[in-house]
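User: Modeling request: complex.
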Amino acid sequence: MTLDNILASLFPNGHAIEKNGSLLIGSATLADGTAVEVIGAADHAPLGIDEAIRLSRRVLEIAARGDRMPILVLLDSDSQRMSKRDELLGLNEFLAHLAKALIFADTRGHRTIGLLYGHTAAGAFIATALSTRALVTLPGAEPAVMDLPSMSKVTKLQIEVLEEKAKSTPVFAPGVANVERVGAIAATWDDNVSLGAQLQALLATAEETADTRDRLGKERNGRPKAADVASRVYALALGRS
Amino acid sequence: MSAAPAIIARDARSWYEASARQRIDALLDASTFVEFIGPEQRETSPHLALFDLPEQFDDGMVVGHGTLDGNPVFVAAQEGRFMGGAFGEVHGAKLTGLLRAARDTKSIPVLILFDTGGVRLQEANAGELAIAEIMRAVLEARTAGTPVVGLIGGRAGCYGGGALVAGCCSALAISEQGRLAVSGPEVIETNRGVEEFDSKDRALVWRTMGGKHRRLIGAVERFVDDTVADFRAAAVELIATAPAFGADVLAAEQARLEQRIAQFGTCIDAVDVWKAEGVPDPEAIPAMPAQPFIALADTIRRTRHDAR
Amino acid sequence: METLSYRHATARRASGTKNIALVGVVASCNLEVLVERVLPDTECEVAISTAAEGFGKVWEAVVADFVERRSPGGLRLSINDGGARPDTVSLRLAQAVRTIEEDAS
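Assistant: Request completed. Predicted assembly structure:
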């Protein structure tokens, strides 16, 4: 689906979302009258300090209002921008700050929903999609930590070898199926059905207050150990305090 | 009587050279450390065998409880020499569990001894999720009033997802050897070309991502000498002065990051940044010993901005 | 990956009261040794996991030499090997026994 089609399917009554460079900022109303704030990173563009700071500013403006409007994060980005300038100026802080803003807004009653419709990777993936309370995907979503050719270079294993190994585990290779199995994805939406209706249905369900992704990863056989290890450390630490 | 030289020796030891366990042992009060899921539990990575890679019994992450100058702390230390200190499924889950406990205990601060290249590629999706879960858990702990302080000074630096976790901490201390960045030098060179960033130019790497630059640009609260004693002093101080997490801190951080772009957004190199900050002799910064540098940094930039 | 295991009778029990110790790190040319005081006084076991296959005879000799010198009775030593040379292995095994024989502080 193109971005325009996605917006039309989400907001059949129109929207006030503007695209500035690769960034989306604005608001719209769902068919049932629910008002929604929207931010996004589009065009498969890298997420650097200049992009992150604008998105975080918007999120904090929303969070300061306290009107509990949900925030939809639309995503088709590249990885973080890998440049000297971005690192010189402290990219880690900008990306962490965006993540903090989203997580904070969610705790203040602005439900955060990530909608991954294209690509995202690495630091951009963490600061946006993985910092929302619920992450949903559309067919065509391509999340990755690192692409296989780069992974091949770093691990010094041939791409064919990695592809073969990826058949037996979802734990490292790119793709929605793998990322879903490790627990990251709350739902895969149907692009033949109104996206607005699917968003309304999601908003009608009670929001999770705890981070259940490790438990999902265990249920889906993607992360067999994480949930139990975290629980055991938690119990030992409470016993010690 | 015989304990005194041992303690002096312990305090003077190099943080950089020490292992994760040696750092914990030297940092905390003697014999107070109790490990959670120690190596004898053999809770290893379920994913490394597929790549014919050896496991480590603690999966490169040591977590537990001890006291620091008599006060209870939770501590997590990464072993930078095992898989580059990278976050794997079990490695990350140990820290997640510790932070969730700190959130619910409310009164025991967390020290994270970073030493990481980022996410472990052989477990990339699990590592990436672990980072996201850890970041959320750090913020939940901070929201509950628990300081989470990061110490950076190991062989692997603090890269990738680790640098994003660091950016969520209440405060950070870093040494000369420490580096803090999202993308590593080689990746920047591959992406942008050697003219923009020569990854083999160590001086350039340190100017761009190293401890001194991070202190001068305000990415960390404290620059420390490469000794256990200095890291301990910074940890104690940063725990005591950690800001509460909330709207005010986030608004202040938004302002300082916007100001950073306004002030330094056209700088080509770190030396340009330091010059713009009013450092009298920027070229002398890299070779400056720790104590004079710390004194200079304290005059250039407020040591606390309560905006992290 | 290859796993190897060697059991030996020993002359004496390893001294001290500590029940567990750990030395080393799993890295290139290095190894970790986890020592546990879990066996009868005159028995010891060395269990190895290594990515370098086909060196059984070398491990066997190193372990036999170590047992002869140190008499690590009562100890199970578990190794994760990152590709260490035999002399590094011998060093770590000796360090491991020294560490578990230290007085508890």
